[in-house]
UniProtKB/TrEMBL annotation:
One of its GO terms (cellular component) is plasma membrane. Pfam families: Peptidase_S58. Gene3D superfamilies: L-amino peptidase D-ALA esterase/amidase. InterPro entries: ArgJ-like_dom_sf, Peptidase_S58_DmpA. It is found in: Cell membrane. Keywords: Aminopeptidase, Cell membrane, Hydrolase, Membrane, Protease, Transmembrane, Transmembrane helix. It is a multi-pass membrane protein. It comes from Streptomyces griseicoloratus. PANTHER family: BLR5678 PROTEIN (PTHR36512:SF3), D-AMINOPEPTIDASE (PTHR36512). Belongs to the peptidase S58 family. This is P1 family peptidase.
Length: 341
């Protein structure tokens, strides 16, 4: 049975650590690969990225597999969450072997952050190593194929998309070949997810089915609410949409790099404008290698590439729809569901 989430890729687990109240509105999400690791790659398109260990994923470099990916709030400060994940992995001997003792490992933990500083009211309330450890422990404790909480959790706790509340979303599909492709997204963009003329989510225009347009009165009321909220809030200096696209296909590191790159198309369908100087848009790709690509089809990878972008679009729609409104000392962000139903 599938749950329409990143965890439909066998062996992949997701854990959130969420901090709210007393000035907090942030968190960390960890994607934990199967033991032994997964082939990984990354593609950064935003002009203001905050990342860690992304150079290690370059196919020209030595690291072959990684054990976890960290997505976190807190801007560059929040990248400290990866230290907690590294410590947890080291205790279990999971990482790149660097000595004769099996315990001599260096876990390579790529990480990327979103800007949510001060959105809970306290600029100094941000994830740290303990937050990262809590998230990876939550991932490890989850059952195989478990449902993934969406909305204002983990790295999506303080996320904002334009003037709307953002969050975490996830989606998956199974191709005719039997290969699973899935995505998890932290939607926190400077651009908007909503068509200003109709109120429809951009991402729903690409879902291959008829779109229900909001009534004009509902849309006009929503536009007024959003304008009021935007006027009240301080302009966000930085934003970012983060994604992890995972598959059980057997991909080379170069093929995984291509998957990470084409998955950015999924962001561009759901958010406009995208990849701005004050975005840090970053997509990671993970391949567990359980199902080989069809050697008789030289272009078999195309199916995986197309599905990766599609799942990112769907995940952004789900993130925005699952988000709950926030009205606190750090600002007010209505949710799409609150405005449009």
């Amino acid at each position: 049975m599938t749950v329409d989430a990143l965890t439909d890729v066998a062996g992949v687990r997701v854990g959130h650590a969420t901090r709210t109240g007393d000035g907090w509105l942030t968190g960390t999400t960890v994607v934990l690969a199967p033991e032994g690791g997964a082939v990984a790659a990354v593609d950064v398109r935003g002009g203001g990225p905050g990342t860690k260990e992304t150079d290690a994923l370059d196919p020209r470099n030595v690291v072959q597999k990684i054990e976890a990916v960290v997505l976190t709030g807190g801007s560059a400060y929040g990248l400290d969450a990866a230290s907690g994940v590294m410590a947890w992995l080291e205790e279990r001997g999971r990482g790149v072997r660097v000595g004769p003792d099996p315990a001599h490992v260096v876990p390579v933990v790529p990480a990327a952050c979103v800007f949510d500083l001060g959105r809970g009211g306290d600029f100094r309330a941000r994830p740290d190593a303990a937050t990262g450890r809590a998230a990876v422990e939550a991932a490890d404790a989850s059952a195989a194929g478990a449902r993934v909480p969406e909305g204002c959790v983990g790295a999506g706790t303080g996320a904002v998309v334009g003037a709307l509340k953002g969050g975490i979303g996830t989606a998956s599909t199974v191709l005719e070949s039997g290969i699973t492709v899935a995505a998890l997204v932290v939607a926190n963009a400077a651009g908007s997810a909503v068509d200003p003329e109709t109120g429809v989510l951009y991402g729903e225009l690409f879902r291959g089915r008829r779109v229900a347009y909001p009534e004009r009165g509902v849309h006009e009321s929503a536009r007024r609410r959003l304008a009021e909220a935007a006027a009240r809030n301080a302009p966000p200096p930085l934003n970012t949409t983060l994604a992890v696209v995972a598959t059980d296909a057997g991909l080379s590191r170069a093929q995984a790099q291509k998957l990470a790159g084409t998955a950015h198309d999924g962001i561009a369908r759901a958010v406009r404008p995208v990849h701005l100087l004050n975005d840090g848009d970053t997509v990671f790709a993970l391949a567990t290698g359980e199902r080989p690509l069809d050697d008789g089809r030289p272009l078999a990878l195309n199916d995986v590439l197309a599905a990766g972008a599609d799942m990112v679009t769907r995940a952004i729609v789900r993130a925005v729809r699952a988000a709950e409104p926030v009205d606190g000392p750090g600002g007010a962000w209505p949710s799409y569901g609150e405005l449009y139903g």
